[in-house]
Amino acid sequence: MFAKDALSYSAIPLPDRQDLTDDQMCAAAQAFYDKMRMRHSVRDYSDRPVPRAVIENCLRTAGSAPSGANHQPWHFAAIAEPAMKARIRAEAEEEERRFYAGGAGDEWIKALEPIGTTADKPHLTIAPWLIVVFAQRWGEFDDGTRFKNYYVPESVNIATGFLLAALHHAGLATLTHTPNPMKFLAPALGRPASEKPTMIIAVGHPSADATVPQVAKIKKPLNEISSFFE
């Protein structure tokens, strides 16, 4: 992506400028909130297909996120292949069985009780797409030498948030899973040693009988999640 001889600074006028009135800004912020508060983590999926073009555009949104030094230290592997999804599910369920058998500790297991999760992860094979998010710890110049990436976790987390919002905006349900360790993912998906999987996102349409935990609808009020200094 980067060439050693093309790292100089050059400025251009701000493109895509928005010029909204205060009322328009308030309306836009309210509309986005109203849309995003309808997002739920869904564990029950339909096998209804999702067109690749939808996933591609959502990934373009993720790729537009800000990043440290604009290095964009992420890669998204979108998987619809049944065999790979089955392998991911098998590895995830093996990991989860250890987790629920005592690896997590009593406090963590107790905290999960209102969520109703178990070691079974059928969504990983039923959902039409899995998106594996990779964090790129270092990059390479066009001549093959390495360069350092900066604020990698922060950058990848922002891009992942963009992706989840885009998928929801497209009318899709999602569920996140953190692979630990799932070391097979990088080689199996052709990713280099510089990249580490950070998230697996199940993507699709909720099943007709999909449910969510009642507790998931309880969100902290604004005065508990924010402070204003004016």
UniProtKB/TrEMBL annotation:
Domain of life assignment: Bacteria
Keywords: Flavoprotein, FMN, Oxidoreductase
InterPro entries recorded: Nitroreductase, Nitroreductase-like, Nitroreductase/BluB
A GO molecular-function descriptor: oxidoreductase activity
Domain Nitroreductase: 37-205
KW S-adenosyl-L-methionine (keyword) present: no
Keyword Oxidoreductase: yes
Annotated protein name in UniProt: Nitroreductase family protein
SUPFAM superfamilies: FMN-dependent nitroreductase-like
